[in-house]
Amino acid sequence: MIDLAAFSRQDFATVLELAQRFRCLPVAGARKLPALQGRLVTSLFFEPSTRTRSSFEIAAKRLSADVQSFSPASSSLSKGESLLDTARTYLAMGANLLVVRHRCAGVPQQLAAELDRDGERVAVLNAGDGLHSHPSQGLLDLFTLARYFAPEAPSPAALAGRRIAIVGDVLHSRVARSNLWALTACGADVVLCGPPTLLPEAFAAFVDGPPPGQAVDPVPQRGRIAIERQLDLALEGVDAVMTLRLQKERMQQQMITSLDAYHRQYGLSHRRLAHCGKHVPVLHPGPVNRGVELAGELLDDPAISLVDEQVTNGIPVRMALLYLLAAGEAS
Ligand code: NCD
Question: Ligand 1 atom closest to Cα of 51?
């Protein structure tokens, strides 16, 4: 599972439906399902992570899988072992599913292709690759929005015709890219907002034409993407707002004039949200720069912030992905 560009609306529906079933399981009592008993899920994280890694590991454990995690700093990578040989080592120990995060775009895909060529029967799940894609985050954001609009039956239809704002550092965000594919596939229109340094004009055409490597788009009619530089105008009439972290570690040079100025122009607060004209939820993939992209009081306001809900939903969504991939492997 490398990215969401090639997902059809039915693919999204399948994941949301299964995630909802896992989400509705009783929290107390028998929490473990036997589905992945005897399977080994290995997480290979070459880049830091708090949420994604833990969430995948908890999801795997809830399905009774064995879980092994790899830490690059204390591994033989420092002795020059290649990434492919590292993966092969874990396969030799019986890994059935590899969850891979890397700072370079394309690594999980390349790894999957190499292992496929070797004839290995292993599933590779992309847990974030460079600026390219973060499919499980895109799916959990979609699930969170679909549950907000249709708590009993979250499906792509719950997103159709909605207007979703994505605000902030779009340029460095693999989460935004995955969300653009997911939201437009479900028929939502997206309004992007940010300064030109962090939101190049080219994003307006991000989903135009077939997804990379595909002859045709699996989604016959996508929602549209628009760019609006002024936050107050971008918020007019939206149904939800997604904010993004300012990814300072990925910026080669100063791309904003100052954090204060950025917050004044693009920071979300209760006062700013009034421009939506109605009550709307706010999402953020985390980690949050408090007081920069999002005012602290807004992040902590349970009537508006879905941030904790996103984290909670990450587990059933990743359970669904592991389940579907392991089932594919069995068949
Ligand atoms: C994001 C990531 O790592 O891509 N975080 C996450 O997985 N929840 C976004 C970010 O780092 O800002």
Answer: 8
- CATH class as words, domain 4-133+312-330: alpha beta
Any ligand 1 atom below 6 A from CB of 137: yes
CA dihedral 151, 153, 156, 162 (to 10 degrees): -40
According to CATH, where is 3.40.50.1370 located in the chain?
4-133+312-330, 135-310
Q: What angle do CA 103, 107, 111 make, to 5 degrees?
A: 145
Q: Which residue has the tokens 């935004």?
A: 176
- Distance, in Å, from the CA atom of 93 to the CA atom of 234, rounded to the nearest integer, reads 51
Q: Is 292 in the pocket of ligand 1 (CB under 6 A)?
A: no
pLDDT grade for 28, boundaries at 50, 70 and 90: low
Q: Is the CB of 316 under 6 A from ligand 1?
A: no
CATH class of 135-310: alpha beta
Question: Residue 252: what pLDDT?
Answer: 74
51 lines ligand 1 (CB under 6 A): yes
Confidence class for position 331, pLDDT limits 50, 70, 90? very low
User: Ligand 1 atom closest to Cα of 285?
Assistant: 8
3-state secondary structure 30-52: CCCCCCCCCCEEEEEECCCCCHH
CA–centroid distance, residue 69 to ligand 1 (Å): 19
103 lines ligand 1 (CB under 6 A): no
Using the atom order of ligand 1, give the atom closest to the CA of residue 286. Answer: 8
Task: State the DSSP code for 30.
Answer: -
DSSP for 310-327 reads HHHHHHHHHHHHHHHHHH
pLDDT for residue 329: 60
> Ligand 1 pocket, 174 CB below 6 A?
yes
- 252-282 confidence digits (pLDDT tens): 778 888 889 999 999 999 999 998 889 999 9
Average pLDDT over residues 142-165: 98
